[in-house]
Structure formats: C-alpha cells, structure tokens
Amino acid sequence: MTGIWRPVAVYASALLPFIESRGSVLLARVLNLPVRLSSALSIAGSYTPVPFLLYAKKSPKLQSIKKKEPPENVRRLVRQYGCWALLVLIAMPFTGLGCWLGAIIARAMRLDRRKSAVSIFIGNAIAVLLMTGCLSGVCAAAKGLLGLL
Prior knowledge:
globular, mainly alpha
C-alpha cells in the first residue's frame, strides 16, 4: 500500500465504531506513517461522526438509541459530573468507550450538545496521545530488548 492509500486507510478505520482512534493508531504504526500525521488522521476520523450523532434530527434509529439507557455506573457518573465524566471516560484509551458511544450517551442523557462535542473532542485527543505514547514505548522496548520492529 503506497501513496495516498495509507493515510486514507487510517482515516477510514478511525471512522468505524468500536475501532475508532485506538485501532487506527495501531494501523498507522503498522503502515509506518509519521506520528503527527497518524494522530491527526485518527482524531479527525473518529470525531467526524460526532456532530451527526449529536445534532441529527429525530429519526426512528435515533429514537431507538435514546430508548437504550447506558449502564447504571456510566449514568451515575454522567449525572453527577456531566461533560467532565464524558471527557474522562473517552480519554481512557482502553475502555472501549470512544466518540461514537460518547455521543450516544450524551444524546441519551440529554447533555448540552456544545459542551458534549467539546468534551468528546478533547477526550478523543487525549486518548490518541496516550495510545500513541504507549504504543511508541512498547515498540521501542521491543526493538531494544528483542531487536524487533
């Protein structure tokens, strides 16, 4: 895979729910993309669907999403701390809670849309930076210890 297709693949993988920025950072590392480019593509790709999820008009699919309540522990945290809880939940890179689920939770809990959008963006950026740093550290350790990568 050469040329423009490597960045496009990273961006497209970041668009997918549950893979999002965490998986796209791994893919970027495998494809040997520069760290700044891969981070920017991962953040942009995983954040792209958030405005559509937060600001979409009423539709049958979104109504079914609203009927499904988040787990009780997440509801309690979001009720108590609001958008700050959303930011922290999304910023933890290994929770599986990314931008898609963060936007769905914000919509289901009827949080302020603007504050939610900002919280989701900042949480996503923190998660990408943490994931990139951890992955770089693991790869450097494997290279130093085993002569791999």
